Each structure stands twice: as C-alpha cells, then as structure tokens.
Amino acid sequence: MEKADRTCINPDCQYVFKPRRQSQKYCCRSCQREYNNKKARERREQLKPTTNALMKNRSILERILGSRNEAIVSMDYLQGAEFNFSYYSQTKRSDDQMIFCIYEYGLQKLSDGKLKVIRHDG
Ligand SMILES: [Zn+2]
After folding, report:
1. Does the pLDDT at position 50 exceed 80?
2. Residue 112 pLDDT more than 60?
3. What is the torsion angle, in degrees rounded to the nearest 10, for the CA atoms of residue 112, residue 115, residue 117 and residue 121?
4. Residue 99 pLDDT > 50, yes or no?
5. d(CA 73, CA 56)
6. CA of 30 to the centre of ligand 1 (A)
7. Which residues hold their Cβ within 5 A of ligand 1, which is an ion?
8. What is the pTM of this model?
9. Between the CA atoms of 61, 85, 74 and 64, what dihedral angle is there, to the nearest 10 degrees?
10. Mean of the pLDDT values across residues 83-109?
11. Distance from the alpha carbon of residue 112 to the mean position of ligand 1, in angstroms
12. 46 CA to centre of ligand 1 in angstroms
C-alpha cells in the first residue's frame, strides 16, 4: 500500500515527501541532523544558567583549597566570593551529617557555623 505524503518536521524545511519507512519524520538526513542539532543547542541553552553557577561554585572551592584537601571558611567569606548556596551537584551523608557537593568538592557545616571545604574522590 502506498504510504501517505508527509511533511518534514524540520520547521525550516516543511517539505512534503513520500516516506520510505513508517517512522520517517524528515525528508532527508541533513534535515534530521539540523533538527537534532537545534534541539541539542536549545537543551544546552536551557542548562546554561545552572551549569555556569555550578562551575563558578566549583572554581571558588578550587581556589580556596589550592593543593590542600581541607580548609575551614566562614559563610561570609563564601558569600563575599559570590558562592551561590542554591547550587549543588549532589549531596552525601557522613556521620549523620549532610555534605553538599559541587562535583569533587564538598561543603560540611561545622557546629560553630563555619564550613569545612573538602576534596573527595569521585
Ligand atoms: Zn526537510
């Protein structure tokens, strides 16, 4: 049976074509590539603010630690360095305490209100 004509879903093309396969959504490979690249670009743009905030936090902790594996800093110091406390990549538990991680770095709140910056593996 003849397959019905279809419109290419690439919005910049919208060419009407005869599909060779049931699942065919694009008139050609380059439309498929163009459309997928555009979607990937949009996804990267959406994630950019979060990625940038995380990378900034990471570089602040990297700078604080230098070659050390631990350092104690105050909340004010981190705020002064423009650390954004809303962005973490993951959390961990250690001795019933929450550690907020930014990739390979961790932040642990101490009883005096200061923060311990830790470097951990993985
Ligand atoms: Zn097309």
Report:
1. yes
2. yes
3. 80
4. yes
5. 17
6. 8
7. 8, 10, 13, 15, 27, 31
8. 0.74
9. 10
10. 93
11. 63
12. 25
